[in-house]
Amino acid sequence: MMRFLLVLAVLPLTAAASQAAIAYTRFEHPKGDYVIEYPSDWNKSYGLQAVSLRPPGLAGKTARVSLERYPLGKNTPAKPDDFEKELLSQVGTLKKLDSQSSVDMAGRKARRLVLRETAAIPGRQGQHLAGPLREIYVILPFGAAAYYVLKLEGIGEAFTKALPEFDLMARKLTLAAVKP
């Protein structure tokens, strides 16, 4: 009995130690708009208004975290509320809303929406992918004329494994002060 209790006492320590052992890399937007930390073994690609992060290996094909600045142009919602309305307009036809809430992130009030696609998703060769596609959007205001969207999208186990890292990225994300 004592040996069993000792094993149970050591298990939480082992799990905590393995999570703490993950190395993180900081990416700072070239103009200083934000800083995001992500697991060092994840693949990064970026453009002027976006950064995309993918887990290593096969999970990187079915899960992705992105941080994008909006509006991107005339065809994208100009305001955070409009972005949220556009997402919610897909509920009932293509997507199901799992949850929506207000959150504090990067020193700002933000909106968090968790969605799941209801339609089957075909793969590149027409095969049925293990779904459904799940998405988390966090919509962050950034001044009067812009906002950021931190998004996790993925399928199956890749989404589930990326979720704790996404939550950590969200907690550690910093946005620059808005310039007048």
Key terms:
disordered N terminus; 4 helices; 38% strand; 7-stranded antiparallel beta sheet; alpha+beta; 180 residues; single chain; 3-stranded antiparallel beta sheet
Q: Describe it for me?
A:
The chain has 180 residues and is α+β, with helices and mostly antiparallel strands. 27% of the residues lie in helices and 38% in strands. The chain has 4 helices and 10 strands; from the N terminus they run αββββαβαββββαβ. It has helices at 2-20, 59-62, 80-88, 156-172; strands at residues 24-28, 34-39, 43-46, 50-54, 63-70, 95-105, 108-117, 133-141, 147-155, 174-175. The chain has a 7-stranded antiparallel sheet with strand order 3-4-5-9-8-7-6. A 3-stranded antiparallel sheet has the order 1-2-10. The protein is globular, with a radius of gyration of 18 Å. The protein starts with a helix and ends in a 5-residue tail after the last strand. 26% of the residues are buried. The model is unreliable at 1-18 (pLDDT under 50).
Instruction: Report the structural category.
Output: alpha+beta
User: What is the first-to-last residue Cα distance?
Assistant: 66 Å
Number of helices: 4
Query: What does the average pLDDT come to?
Result: 85
Following the backbone from N to C, one meets helices and strands in this order, namely: HEEEEHEHEEEEHE
Gross geometry: globular
* Alpha-carbon Rg, integer: 18 Å
Helix content: 25-40%
Widest sheet: strand order?
Answer: 3-4-5-9-8-7-6
The count of DSSP E runs of length 2 or more, i.e. the number of strands, is 10
Proportion of beta-strand residues:
35-45%
The description of the largest β-sheet is: 7 strands, antiparallel
Poorly predicted regions: 1-18
